[in-house]
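step=encode ok
step=design start
structure_in=
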């Protein structure tokens, strides 16, 4: 028997975050259509998270076609959706307890690539239980995506979720790997298969709109100091968007903070052959007889 209390406050807050996320994800999916603005969709989602009693755990990621992760609109972003593959990755926290979930909306006519990552996620969650090895989860994901004739993105992984920490151990691989960790009751992990019709690796692009605190340190520049005050008070170590900063010159403040290694950026990750990427993700709590997906719609 495990002595983890799955009814305790921390798990209740994880569930609350997951419920808010599922609600907002459903509403946002309905707003993604040709001609709709990226910025309007991201801000709608983030506002709804706050209205429902949560906080965004990271900026809503809107990744198009070969983009796999870490894309979010800038402050004056004028982009609109076309006939594209659109990954929406959403994070919610309640007092630092997190939920992380992603879905792909396909307007490009590549349903099977979307199905590949969705079915891989379901197959993976089917085997999550105490004692399962992370490598077994990766093997199931790889097998399903392979069965569709696509490749998993192997250098992106699922992950544990901690208090105010979006990425903790263990990694949940998207392919069979020998190095492995056993999951236990009470673990909160995000499982997130990515499927691509390319070779299955992402590389860093040049755009950067998402940042996070690296280490706290005093800064002399007033504009940068104001930004840092907001970051430490509001976002702590969670990722934030340039457009979330209330200072007069957010770009300058961030460049200064980055130069001093106070803040680091997350460059947009793109499939290295420029091929399409789909993604599906749920956050789960490992229970005595399996797992509970906190971010599933009910
Ligand atoms: Mn995510
Ligand atoms: Mn994740």
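sequence_out=
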């Amino acid at each position: 028997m495990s002595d983890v209390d799955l009814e305790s406050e921390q798990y209740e807050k994880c569930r609350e975050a997951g419920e808010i996320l599922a609600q907002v994800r459903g509403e946002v999916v309905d707003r993604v259509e040709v001609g709709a603005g990226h910025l309007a969709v991201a801000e709608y989602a983030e506002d709804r998270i706050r209205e429902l009693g949560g906080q965004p755990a990271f900026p809503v990621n809107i990744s198009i076609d070969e983009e796999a992760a870490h894309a979010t609109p800038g402050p004056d972003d004028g982009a609109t959706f076309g006939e594209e593959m659109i990954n929406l990755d959403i994070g919610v926290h309640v007092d630092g307890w997190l939920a992380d979930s992603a879905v792909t909306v396909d307007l490009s006519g590549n349903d099977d690539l979307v199905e590949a990552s969705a079915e891989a996620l379901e197959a993976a969650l089917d085997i999550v239980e105490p004692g399962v090895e992370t490598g077994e989860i990766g093997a199931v994901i790889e097998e399903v995506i392979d069965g569709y004739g696509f490749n998993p993105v192997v250098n992106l992984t699922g992950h544990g979720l901690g208090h105010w920490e979006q990425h903790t151990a263990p990694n949940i691989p998207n392919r069979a790997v020998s190095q492995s960790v056993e999951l236990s009751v009470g673990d909160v992990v995000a499982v997130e298969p990515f499927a691509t019709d390319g070779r299955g690796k992402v590389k860093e692009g040049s755009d950067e709109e998402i940042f996070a605190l690296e280490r706290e340190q005093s800064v002399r520049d007033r504009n940068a100091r104001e930004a840092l005050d907001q970051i430490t008070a509001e976002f702590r170590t969670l990722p934030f968007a340039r457009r979330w900063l209330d200072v007069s010159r957010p770009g300058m403040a961030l460049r200064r903070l980055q130069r001093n290694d106070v803040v680091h950026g997350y460059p947009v990750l793109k499939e290295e052959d420029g091929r399409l990427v789909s993604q599906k993700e749920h956050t789960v709590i490992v229970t005595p007889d399996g797992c509970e997906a906190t971010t599933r719609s009910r």
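step=design ok
step=annotate ok -> The chain has a mean pLDDT of 97.
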